[in-house]
């Protein structure tokens, strides 16, 4: 099946293709959820079975702790981590987290970017970027949760209110900025989205909520737009998605109480759909069949399929369909062909018709889920917080292919590059390939 993905503008496509062109026919995985930001890989011959030893070409112990996902570009793998600045002789933060609740006060953190050789696992460099003092985070969060973004020459890293930075592939810091100031609730979570000229960053704190565009070249804030006013909790953790609608680029940005669309150049709000009471929104939206699919967060999550060609408040006019059954609080949905797939935080997977919302199947795959699923080679890959992967065939009938356990906690999402699957657990980074 051919996945339905964002069709970029001609200008963006020219810049994007120039950025991803490489001497070899290898797909990069440059940001959270891959080349389109929607969980699709064009790779084939990927493994469907693995363990802590089976089909593992290498695994690497990662210092400190972080739930950012790995990204890969031209054979280099980048990820972030946070190392306590004091109090642990081994440099490894004690894992006292639970599936919910607020963690205890953490020690001051040193925030790092790591670069590894993607084929061998060799550490090429380790760069300290920021430091910060004591802070309080959610039990499912870390001090290094946002995923890096990379292109041919640069890697951008984001640590929420603690700062954003651009480095080159040799580890030299090009710029750093700490101008996005707000009070994070439970720590930092969402990753930036990358456009031709700017990074787009959701900044939804307990005290103020806005979205900002940060210039890729200078690190200066190009624009920031305040969210609409509302009552209730304002904090959320989602990642924006860029889509092209009628020849212009929209930044789709979920927030508490609303999912909103902004003009990528000016920051002007284009449209909004309201979901009153929804907050702590995590899932990144997806786009296909001319519809934006967005989740509403806590308490009772809904999935909305929205036509993005409206103006202003389109809650009553542009919602094609909506469902609440089995909708996730945390993992992002996945559109493949004519279907949309998602898994609830409690491990119930669903497949719906992407155009109508009609249900094809709903099956329990087990475990608790935070990682976003991916699609590759005709298969859907889920990953539980317990480190168990469930692989199924994409289709309107449920068909499980394999279950694979790494037996260590993970909240990070997959990366796929050069025929390999990369999985980050609490202490390890795995490169998994098919065969010897």
Features:
mainly beta; 34 strands; five-stranded mixed β-sheet; single chain; 1 helix; Methylamine Dehydrogenase, Chain H; 436 residues
What does this structure look like?
- The protein is mostly beta strands and 436 residues long.
- It has one domain (10-432): Methylamine Dehydrogenase, Chain H (7 Propeller).
- It is built from one helix and 34 strands.
- The protein has one helix at residues 10-20; strands spanning 40-41, 56-61, 71-73, 76-84, 109-117, 123-132, 149-150, 154-158, 164-168, 173-177, 193-194, 198-204, 209-215, 221-226, 241-245, 248-255, 258-263, 269-274, 286-288, 291-295, 303-306, 312-313, 319-323, 334-336, 339-343, 348-353, 359-364, 374-376, 379-383, 388-393, 400-405, 415-417, 420-424, 428-432.
- The chain is globular, with a radius of gyration of 20 Å.
- It starts with 9 loop residues before the first helix and ends with a strand.
Short précis:
With 436 residues, the protein is mostly beta strands. It has one domain (10-432): Methylamine Dehydrogenase, Chain H. The protein has one helix at 10-20; strands spanning 40-41, 56-61, 71-73, 76-84, 109-117, 123-132, 149-150, 154-158, 164-168, 173-177, 193-194, 198-204, 209-215, 221-226, 241-245, 248-255, 258-263, 269-274, 286-288, 291-295, 303-306, 312-313, 319-323, 334-336, 339-343, 348-353, 359-364, 374-376, 379-383, 388-393, 400-405, 415-417, 420-424, 428-432.
